[in-house]
Design goal:
- The complex is a heterodimer of chains A (about 400) and B (about 80).
- Helix content of chain A is about 50%, strand content about 15%.
- Chain A has 18 helices and ten strands.
- In chain A, the strands form three sheets. Chain A has a four-stranded antiparallel beta sheet with strand order 8-9-1-10. A four-stranded antiparallel beta sheet of chain A has the order 3-4-6-5.
- Chain B starts with 14 loop residues before the first strand and ends with a strand.
- The chains are: A alpha+beta (about 400), B alpha+beta (about 80).
């Protein structure tokens, strides 16, 4: 008598607390294909549970040290290899070991901020529409449109020579520029072909004219702050925008941008805009991408541990002196890591108490370490033992 | 041109839910811990704001995991 699919599913449902979803799913698929009796199903389940229990990390296992070694070893190979891969992509992005260090140090700004902007279906297929979005994103300052500018002290003006080619390429009309120039107080403008003269109303010194020139050049015409350069690239069926500089919050608000996939390599920015959980996921993805790019693989579980540790407090904190290691409860553990004297001195002044709970401090004082088999403590129940003794005596 | 963005739609953001009083109590009992021992999430976190959780609430986060399919994580909302 074979079991029906419904019966198998019902039995598997009971295991929901004991096995992770991915294993249950795989098991379900396999079991549906086989013809099984009740006894066979039970013995399979028993075996799976046994194997799963065996594969789990044991209590007291030093997972942190294992994670550190698992990431550390491939990093030694990276230092040598980074050199060969530098500067291949169109946009220069920090990769290899420097990038890994940047991530685990939780830097406020990455050294090369970069965004990958995906577009919504309708925009992603159409080159023109994709270009429009790209133009809307790229910052454009008045200076970018100029061939040159000069100060004419005799006629009391600043002359701006516009580059017609740039104007056409960026699709900027002269009216747009003049409108912006009109918003500056106390100046008038004169147009002659592609030369625009900005004339202050009051007589100005050369210093004041120079100040005006810089102010005019710095006028923000369009685009999103911090995004300095955009590159449009075709990837398979769709167009994807890569940018130098990052501003996730504003980019997501642009019409046509795919809000589900668009990302940045600035992890603190992701945490700020999308929350701590997104930040955690970003850490894992960024480390994994950097390692994969170098042809190295580290089991994700190690990276997950690192990311979880960095994100426990609700903000992304660094691994090391200013973060995880620097916040340990024990003085000796902190002193054993870095800046020894400072920690000891501060602890003495503040009258800190050493609990000797952790690993490092117990190694220092030479006591058994609470790790692995050392985790186990035996407690005797005295009444029970005494009762036994009494019995034996009788 | 500018629009309102629903951040919970982003692929990096897992599902966040506020746990009810009873669920929270049951969880702490099952794990034999106090609230303070749970991982934290700031009151100002964009997802906390979105689901309107208050400090002291426990948030149930259903993560996608490359190894286990889905896993459940808990965070307690804290003031800065």
């Amino acid at each position: 008598m074979h079991l029906s699919r419904e019966e198998i599913d019902a039995r598997l449902e009971e295991l929901r607390d004991k096995l992770p979803q991915s294993i249950l799913e795989e098991l379900r698929q396999e079991l549906h294909r086989a013809k099984l009796t009740k006894e066979a199903l039970e013995s399979i389940i028993e075996e799976v549970l046994k194997r799963y229990e065996y594969a789990r990390v044991e209590p007291g296992e030093a997972v942190g040290v294992v994670a550190a070694q698992s990431m550390g070893e491939p990093s030694t190979q990276m230092t040598m290899r980074t050199f060969h891969y530098a500067g291949v992509a169109e946009l220069n992005v920090t990769l290899g070991l420097p990038r890994i260090i940047e991530i685990v140090d939780a830097r406020k700004k990455p050294s090369t901020p970069m965004m990958t902007i995906y577009l919504e279906e309708e925009y992603a297929r159409d080159k023109e529409k994709a270009e429009q979005v790209a133009q809307e994103i790229e910052t454009l300052y008045l200076e970018d449109l100029l061939e040159k500018s000069e100060i004419d002290i005799v006629h009391q003006r600043v002359n701006l020579y516009f580059d017609e080619y740039e104007m056409r390429r960026r699709k900027v009309e002269m009216e747009e520029v003049l409108k912006k120039l009109g918003s500056i107080k106390g100046v008038s403008t004169e147009v002659a072909g592609n030369v625009v003269s900005v004339i202050p109303e009051k007589t100005s010194s050369i210093k004041e004219l120079r100040k005006l020139e810089n102010r005019v050049k710095g006028i923000h015409l369009r685009g999103i702050k911090d995004i300095r350069r955009v590159v449009l690239r075709r990837e398979g069926e769709e167009y994807v925008i890569y940018t130098e500089g990052s501003n996730l919050k504003d980019v997501l608000r642009i019409e046509g941008v795919d809000i589900t996939r668009t990302k940045t390599n600035d992890i603190t920015e992701i945490q700020r805009v999308l929350g701590i959980e997104a930040g955690r996921n970003a850490i894992i993805n960024e480390i994994q991408d950097t390692l994969n790019e170098q042809g190295l693989t580290v089991d994700v579980r190690h990276l997950m541990l690192v990311a979880d540790m960095m994100a426990v407090d609700g903000t992304i904190k660094a691994i090391g002196r200013h973060g995880v290691s620097g916040e340990k409860a024990s003085v000796l553990a902190r002193a054993a890591f870095e800046i020894t004297v400072d920690h000891l001195l501060h602890a003495a002044v503040a009258g800190e108490y050493e609990e000797l709970e952790g690993i490092v401090e117990n190694v220092i004082v030479g006591r058994p370490v609470k790790l692995g088999t050392g985790m186990v403590e035996l407690v005797m129940r005295r009444e029970l033992e005494e009762a036994k003794e009494v019995k034996e005596a009788e | 041109m500018r629009r309102v963005v629903d951040i919970s739609k982003h692929e990096l953001v897992p599902k966040h839910e506020v746990m009810s009083e009873e669920e929270a109590k049951e969880l702490l009992e099952r794990l034999n811990i106090t609230k303070g021992q749970l991982p934290k999430i700031l009151k100002s976190d964009p997802m906390v704001q979105k689901i309107k959780a208050k400090p002291g609430d426990i948030i149930k986060i259903t993560r996608k995991s490359p190894t286990a399919g889905t896993t459940i994580y808990y965070r307690v909302v804290v003031n800065e």
